[in-house]
Design goal:
The protein is an alpha/beta fold. 42% of the residues lie in helices and 12% in strands. It has an eight-stranded mixed sheet.
Amino acid sequence: MTVVRFWGMDQFAMMCAKMLLNKFDCFIVIEGNRGLGKSTLAYHLLTRVGRIMKRIAKETGGKDSLYKDYYSFKPYPQSKGKLKGNTKNILYQRDEVINFFDRWNASALADEGINVSFNRDFWNEDQKNLIKLINMNRDHCNLFIMCIPQFQVLDNQIKNLCKIRVTIARRGMAVIQTPNRTIYNKDKWDTANNERIEREWLKKGSGLPKYSKLNTFRGMMRFPALTKRDESIYTTIKVNERNTIKKDLGVGGEEKKEKELSEIAVERLKEGKIRNANILDGMAIANGSTPDSFKNIIRGKLKKEGIDHRLPQYYWEKQGKGKGKEGESGEMFG
């Protein structure tokens, strides 16, 4: 009977931190179907690595520590405020990813969801520049996590640059793989052999994948959903970036005026698509206002329409709709 190693999230994050402290970059690819939690896992890992570096900074001189600003992960709505341009941690656009690799000792998440939907040439256009930068700047010791639907669609050179491959098998469960150390074999992931192994277990029709038989398998890892606070922040970032990309691509026409976030919030409330007050709090941050003032604006708009302005009655969580709607709430991001 094969004993499968289960990694703790803190243990995995420490492994990444040690790699970075040893003057190596850490390029992780997380793959999986939409809605299984790729971005959720990436968010957890980046947060944990940031905490580890912060702890090391305290232990090595506090404010004077070399590590005090290393790998700081600040996933706040970035269209407003201080976090702009080359300091962003969550990336959706091609130029942001390319610019990231000029940074030093930084961390970032490239969330593919928006780009696959609206900009399908994200990883093809300027691909040579991207590969060149990753290779040239490996001594910059950056932590970069890329979320994609399927590892096999990547360019072979990018596959070989990947240090850790994480496959989301189901919500809350990940398969960890690393490349084999080869001298002559160009395919470090031994794709052909692993495909054969996978076909064998599929032929048996047991429905139970035997990941441990893959020769790149290194273990499994469980991960939880995000907290409500982190969930609301991430949802807001995703909405903002989607709107930005739509605008860049000219989707919807130039004559169409972009709606204010408060108007969008009112629409979503009436449609029953706002889970709870935390989502509105995240939208308030994105809008550059406080949660209380943002909610007052929404109440005013509801009053103007002549309908009930009590916000809790619109939350689907309060209406007993909290089960089975993870996709709408954004509890587990794909």
